Amino acid sequence: MSALKIKKGSTKHSAYNLRPTFSDVVEAHTLAVVVENEPGVLARVIGLFSGRGYNIDSLTVAEIDHEGHRSRITIVTTGTPQVIEQIKAQLGRIVPVHEVHDLTVEGPSVERELALLKVCGEGDKRVEALRLADIFRANAVDSTLDSFVFELTGAPEKIDAFAELMRPLGLIEIARTGVAALLRGH
């Protein structure tokens, strides 16, 4: 019988228990993935998410290097830190992927999104919609006698706030581009 007793509530330290501890808090992360611009790459990246039950909150894709045939995929997803690490590791193993960056942890970043919002209304609601658009620096890019289409660029939270204020004024349709993001500085 061993003379070593562990008191209830104490922690036993072992050289085998060196794994980093992760939080159970679900966080949103913005990932920037540079890939070969070739058919099927986006499907493989999306397949990684859907095959493992991960959700994509926002997705933007555009070619960034025409001569080098490279595209940048910006993905906003949510998960625990352990899930995010797993996503990054799995993205890095896809052959046409060149770089994976987690902008949320690599430093301060700039995130912007473009939205078009169609608002129908008459009288005071129409005037209020124009007043709020001015406050949010939204541009009226189309106008009829009973509707406006506003263009708004900004952080996703700004677009969410503007849309919430427009709902009671007659918001009937919204189109959003998804997040485009870059790290600040060098």
Automatic annotation (TrEMBL):
GO CC terms in record: cytosol
Asked if the record carries the keyword Kinase, the reply is: no
Give the catalytic activity. 2 pyruvate + H(+) = (2S)-2-acetolactate + CO2
Q: Which UniProt keywords apply?
A: Amino-acid biosynthesis, Branched-chain amino acid biosynthesis, Transferase
Gene3D superfamilies per the record? 3.30.70.260, ACT-like. Chain A, domain 2
Give the UniProt family note. Belongs to the acetolactate synthase small subunit family.
Please give the name of this protein. Answer: Acetolactate synthase small subunit
Please state the gene responsible for encoding this protein. ilvH
